[in-house]
Amino acid sequence: MLTAQDKQLLLRVAREAVTAAAHGRRYEAPAPETEALKQKRGAFVTLKIREQLRGCIGYTEELYPLIQTVALAGQAAAARDPRFPPVEPGELEQIQIEISALTPLRQIDNVDEIVVGEHGLVMRQGGYSGLLLPQVATEWGWDRDEFLAQTCRKAGLPPDAWRHGAEIYIFSAEVFGEEAD
């Protein structure tokens, strides 16, 4: 679990990374100050403007200390989300940042293990892969079957691929963000 101070620092790091990306600069995360920030964890950084998605990229693997994962994801969400053009400096004041710090992925065989609103999903099959964060299902009011179908679609698979051999992984996330003005 992250402390309030850890979360504030991670939000500051994400904001600085997004700002650097919008100005075409690289950003180097500061050294982790706490054990929680030193832990290698996956994380996603979500950017929104007026509640509309503006970018979201992250890492599921535990490759880097959490503080570095957040910095890398923030830069990528601002500059390399293929669904959106790169964030412009003039947009920075409007951008709200949300961070999802992930637990490790765990493969499941029984979809009854999925708790909507608590678990995120990864679907993999035949070189295709798609991920939806835990908060997506609740934001859209999906039940478990719809969440599974939408994760399949995100992976570029048929919506019922989860019934036909796709690997299903679950994870949890500590989700926190900047307060709306």
Question: What does this 3D model show about the protein?
Answer:
The chain is α+β, with helices and mostly antiparallel strands and 181 residues long. The chain has two domains: 4-102, Hypothetical protein ph0010, domain 1 (Glycoprotein, Type 4 Pilin, 2-Layer Sandwich), CATH 3.30.700.20; 106-172, Hypothetical protein ph0010, domain 2 (Dna Ligase, domain 1). It has five helices and eight strands; from the N terminus they run H-H-E-E-H-E-E-E-E-H-H-E-E. It has helices spanning 4-22, 35-38, 66-79, 134-140, 144-154; strands at residues 43-49, 52-59, 95-102, 106-108, 120-125, 128-132, 167-171, 173-177. A four-stranded antiparallel sheet has the order 2-1-3-8, covered by helices on one side. Strand 5 (120-125) and strand 6 form a beta hairpin. It starts with a helix and ends with a strand.
Low-confidence runs of at least 5 consecutive residues: none
**Residue share in helices?**
25-40%
CATH architecture of the largest domain: 2-Layer Sandwich
> SSE order in H/E notation?
HHEEHEEEEHHEE
Enumerate how many helices there are, as a single number.
Answer: 5
- The whole-number mean of residue pLDDT values reads 95
Number of distinct beta strands: 8
Instruction: Enter the CATH topology name of the largest domain.
Output: Glycoprotein, Type 4 Pilin
Shape assignment = globular
State the strand order across the main sheet: 2-1-3-8
**N-to-C terminal Cα separation, in Å?**
26 Å
CATH 4th-level superfamily of the largest domain: Hypothetical protein ph0010, domain 1
- Beta-strand fraction estimate: 25-35%
C-alpha Rg (nearest Å)? 16 Å
Summing up helix and strand content along with how strands pair, one would put the structural category as: alpha+beta
